[in-house]
């Protein structure tokens, strides 16, 4: 029989309700400050560099030149688009781990239309066919696991994950066919530039930026105000309640995944037409997975998603800049970015909970 | 008399909710103490601090006169405190003895025979009736509860806390439980019963401690207490404890249920050939031990439960019998609504089926009406208006109508659900355990609302667990036993004993024996 000790616990955790705005901002600012302090120690003692200079360099990764800024925006657009595409699926608690594959499906369809229709179709028709093909391919990649989920209650996490590998293999196959004897695929339609997005304000990816801004508003509206958005929320909260309310759960699952997949397909179209003008198995570049974090951290609010995407891209660009400017290896710069991310994510805990130290419970503050 | 437990200035808050405020009270050795209070008054929180599930924010606990720290259930056990929770913590595929063995300390030897012997002695001593080698899944609810009590006694508990032990029992089983509790008292043990059933408090306990809104009101000797004096202490004001029962008028057939059978996922027949009629302007009560097909019956009528072939539920919109009759079996809830049938359903699982916990009142109001209109935008004006009206009329305590309803207390959650379902002008209203967890005032509000619906000519099916209420409120009572209709009695003429007997004993068996 255990000896009863006469000590109350050292630290207790209690949920904090209705944290004030000042507290929310304060905790986050403190987190960033702490991250910079810890990073400064790391930079000074491990790499021997001047932390302030390193921070300036890091900032320059995104803001150094106009070009860098627009490149950062271009990469942000790809990440955020996929996050927006995933939002309805995850809000429905459908674990769509297959964005990577859905983007590739859309990208492959786009590339195929460019390869086989580039010299045949007039430009307006070509762009339309590229778009429709990409959206349809992405939608198909989303529909298949949803259909099986709705009819046989299969596990969507495994199913969507596996669909990624199917897409990767198909892309690899077509890349090999199209490159022929060449060592790499290179840009498609290099001579005719058929299917390439036009340069607007000096960049081909301007359309991507416009589309992502529009979708931020559109998806916000869809999830918050539309009837379908309401159905998604109810199905995500409880399938039993949804059935009780007369919602056809299977139909909502399939419809939502078609939307999610179609938007991923659209992203594939924008990446190939507006950013890469080519395709490879790395076209989605892991954004399909990073976007899951973006969607969840933002609790599916598309505006918050934009902020989080910006933070991730800023850290990524900053880390790369540090690595090249000081000749550090990637690991060191990744640690610096990682520490910042750790503190920012960790601060969420202190926004939601408060700690009560032993003996302090008489003067509790609300 | 010596005090087994002394609580001194105990307080506990959850976020901004103060569950217990400065509570000081005693429990004597060898007494049965009822802890009485409405839902949300902090009874369970207080007891959870004794059993080591929560740790008090302030105050101290004395056991046998000595201050102690109870940081986890193990500490509580070492101090001789054992709690039997409302939801049993048993392993279905184990026998009674094997479940007791799970309580062993890691230093003790795993010897089933020795355990059986010791458990058997406990059963003898307190007159428990249980087969120690029976598997838990073969046991009745009452037997499972007995096993939970044996488990606690096996660990040498001197202080037993029973959380609403009679909620799941028939009147006969309740009497048996009380006999056992009295035996334990004779043996010098202290027993605390958490309850809100007044007549049971008066029958079984020596003293009654009363909590109200987290605060300690006082302790009275049961001998000098009455139902109305206890209610007054519990609620803080006088409450009229009478349920109206207007005579049904304009009564005609509304639902005709015929040969309704449901087989669940495990292949067990949970509803077996149910046949009965429901009339407009009357309340048909459904009595039965929980888990005897109540849930499936209501869900089958609502179109949420697949039924066996030959099942039939025919709906008659008005007196004119056959021309407009509609078959409800085989329809989805949406089909039923589109047919123009106003079917309201207050399901047992409020947050798991009736409401969306993460949404506020407004969004919950639109659950069944959001499809209305052709716009792709869901209308929130009407629902907001309804939410405000319900908040006002039913006195829902919530910071705002957009606060997630899962943050509200159980009673307020139920008000939101009942308010929505009653507001839709139903022609058939089904309610399962509509007052479970509600305070006395709110319960009577709900009974009043049910009667209002009845006067409007709604056909009401009311599944209840409190037989006193069923007998006072309903016009007829259908008793479910083993998924079968075991008889319909006239609520004005029946007795609790008659209904209790129908709940436990199938009529065919009884006639076989005679």
CATH domain fold name of the largest domain in chain B: Rossmann fold
Q: Helical residue percent of chain A?
A: over 70%
How many helix segments of chain B? 18
Distance between the termini of chain B: 52 Å
Rounded to the nearest angstrom, the distance between the terminal CA atoms of chain A is 39 Å
The CATH architecture category of the largest domain in chain B equals 3-Layer(aba) Sandwich
How large is the count of helical segments of chain A?
Answer: 13
Residue ranges of chain B: pLDDT <50 for 5 or more in a row?
none
Corresponding CATH superfamily of the largest domain in chain B: P-loop containing nucleotide triphosphate hydrolases
Largest sheet entry of chain A? 2 strands, antiparallel
Q: What is the oligomeric state here? A: heterodimer
H/E series of chain A: EHHHHHHHHHHHHHE
Based on secondary structure, the structural category of chain B is alpha/beta
**Total number of domains of chain B:** 3
**Portion of residues in helices of chain B?**
25-40%
Per CATH, the class of the largest domain in chain B reads: Alpha Beta
Number of strands of chain B: 20
Structural notes for this entry:
The complex is a heterodimer of chains A (366) and B (514). Chain A has 366 residues and is mainly α. In chain A, α2 packs across α3 (66-91). Chain A has helices at 21-47, 51-63, 66-91, 99-117, 123-152, 156-179, 206-225, 227-237, 239-244, 249-276, 287-297, 302-325, 330-352; strands at residues 11-15, 353-357. Chain A has a domain at 79-308. Chain B has 514 residues and is α/β, with parallel strands linked by helices. Chain B folds into three domains: 3-235, 3-Layer(aba) Sandwich (Rossmann fold); 253-342 and 426-513, Rossmann fold; 355-424, no CATH class. Chain B has a six-stranded mixed sheet with strand order 6-7-8-3-9-10, with helices on both faces. In chain B, α4 (112-126) packs across α5, α13 crosses α14 and α14 packs parallel to α15 (440-455). The longest helix of chain B has 16 residues, at 171-186. Chain B starts with a strand and ends with a helix. At the A-B interface, β1, α8 and α9 of A face α2, α10 and α11 of B.
């Amino acid at each position: 029989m255990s000896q009863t000790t006469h000590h109350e616990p050292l630290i207790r955790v209690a949920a904090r309700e209705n944290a004030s705005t000042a507290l929310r901002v304060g905790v986050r600012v403190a987190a960033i400050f702490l991250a910079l302090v810890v990073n400064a120690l790391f930079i000074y003692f491990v790499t021997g560099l001047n932390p302030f200079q390193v921070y300036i360099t890091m900032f320059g990764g995104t803001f150094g030149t106009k070009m860098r800024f627009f490149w950062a925006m271009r990469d942000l657009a790809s990440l955020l688009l996929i996050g927006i595409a995933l939002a309805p699926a995850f809000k429905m608690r459908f674990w769509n781990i297959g964005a990577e594959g859905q983007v590739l499906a859309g990208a492959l369809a786009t590339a195929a239309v460019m390869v086989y229709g580039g010299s045949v179709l007039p430009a307006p028709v070509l762009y339309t066919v590229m778009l429709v093909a990409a959206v349809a391919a992405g939608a198909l990649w989303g529909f298949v696991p949803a259909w099986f989920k709705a009819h046989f209650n299969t596990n969507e996490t495994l199913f969507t994950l596996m669909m990624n590998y199917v897409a990767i293999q198909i892309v690899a196959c077509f890349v090999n066919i199209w490159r022929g004897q060449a060592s790499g695929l290179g840009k498609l339609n290099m001579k005719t530039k058929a299917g390439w997005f036009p340069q607007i304000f000096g960049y081909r990816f301007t359309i991507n930026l416009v589309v992502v801004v529009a979708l931020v508003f559109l998806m916000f509206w869809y999830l918050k105000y539309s009837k379908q958005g309401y159905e998604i929320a109810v199905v995500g909260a409880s399938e039993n309640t949804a059935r009780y309310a007369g919602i056809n759960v299977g139909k909502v699952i399939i419809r939502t995944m078609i939307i999610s997949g179609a938007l991923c397909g659209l992203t594939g179209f924008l990446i190939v037409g507006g950013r890469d003008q080519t395709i490879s198995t790395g076209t989605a570049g892991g954004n399909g997975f990073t976007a899951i974090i973006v969607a969840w951290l933002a609790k599916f609010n598309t505006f918050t998603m934009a902020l989080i995407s910006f933070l991730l891209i800023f850290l990524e660009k900053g880390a790369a800049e540090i690595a090249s400017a000081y000749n550090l290896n990637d690991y060191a710069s990744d640690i610096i970015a990682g520490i910042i991310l750790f503190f920012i994510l960790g601060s969420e805990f202190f926004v939601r909970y408060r700690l009560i130290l032993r003996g302090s419970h008489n003067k509790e503050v609300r | 008399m010596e005090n087994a437990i002394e609580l001194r200035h105990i307080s506990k808050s959850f976020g901004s909710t103060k569950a217990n405020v400065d509570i000081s009270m005693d429990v004597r050795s060898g007494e049965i103490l009822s802890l009485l209070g409405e839902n949300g008054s902090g009874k369970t929180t207080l007891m959870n601090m004794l059993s080591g599930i929560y740790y008090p924010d302030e105050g101290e606990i004395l056991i046998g006169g000595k201050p102690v720290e109870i940081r986890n259930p193990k500490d509580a056990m070492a101090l001789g405190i054992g709690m039997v929770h409302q939801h049993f913590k048993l392993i279905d595929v184990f026998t009674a003895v094997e479940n007791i063995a799970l309580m062993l300390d890691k230093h003790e030897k795993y010897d089933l025979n020795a355990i059986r012997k010791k458990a058997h002695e406990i059963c003898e001593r307190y007159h428990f009736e249980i087969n120690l080698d029976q598997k838990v899944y073969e046991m009745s609810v009452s037997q499972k509860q007995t096993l939970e009590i044996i488990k606690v006694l096996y660990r040498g508990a001197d202080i037993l806390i029973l959380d609403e032990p009679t909620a799941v029992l028939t009147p006969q089983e309740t009497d048996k439980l009380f006999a056992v509790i009295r035996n334990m008292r004779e043996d010098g043990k202290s027993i605390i019963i958490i309850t809100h059933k007044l007549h049971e408090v008066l029958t079984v306990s020596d003293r009654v401690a009363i909590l109200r809104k987290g605060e300690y009101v006082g302790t009275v000797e049961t001998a000098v207490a009455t139902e109305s004096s206890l209610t007054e202490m519990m609620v803080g004001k006088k409450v009229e404890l009478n349920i109206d029962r207007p005579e049904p008028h304009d009564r005609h057939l509304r639902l005709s249920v015929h040969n309704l059978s449901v087989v669940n996922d495990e292949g067990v027949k949970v509803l077996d050939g149910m046949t009965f009629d429901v009339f407009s302007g009357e309340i048909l009560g459904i009595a039965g031990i929980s888990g005897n097909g109540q849930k499936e019956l209501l869900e089958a009528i609502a179109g949420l439960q697949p039924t066996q072939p030959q099942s039939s539920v025919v709906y008659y919109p008005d007196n004119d019998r056959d021309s407009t009759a509609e078959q409800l079996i085989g329809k989805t809830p949406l089909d039923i609504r589109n047919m123009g049938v106003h079917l309201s359903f207050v399901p047992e699982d409020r947050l798991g089926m009736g409401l969306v916990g993460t949404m506020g009142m407004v969004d919950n109001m639109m659950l069944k009406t959001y499809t209305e209109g052709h716009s792709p935008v869901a209308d929130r004006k009407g629902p907001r208006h309804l939410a405000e009206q319900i908040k006002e009329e039913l006195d829902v305590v919530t910071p705002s109508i957009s606060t997630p309803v899962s943050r509200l207390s159980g009673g307020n959650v139920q008000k939101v659900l009942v308010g929505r379902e009653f507001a839709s002008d139903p022609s058939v209203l089904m309610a399962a355990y509509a007052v479970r967890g509600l305070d006395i005032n709110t319960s009577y509000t709900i009974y009043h609302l049910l009667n209002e619906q009845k006067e409007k000519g709604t056909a009401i099916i009311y599944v209840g667990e409190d037989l006193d209420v069923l007998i006072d409120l309903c016009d007829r009572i259908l008793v479910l036993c083993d998924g079968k209709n075991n008889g319909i009695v006239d609520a004005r003429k029946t007795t609790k004993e008659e209904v209790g007997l129908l709940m436990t004993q199938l009529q065919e068996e009884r006639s076989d024996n005679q």
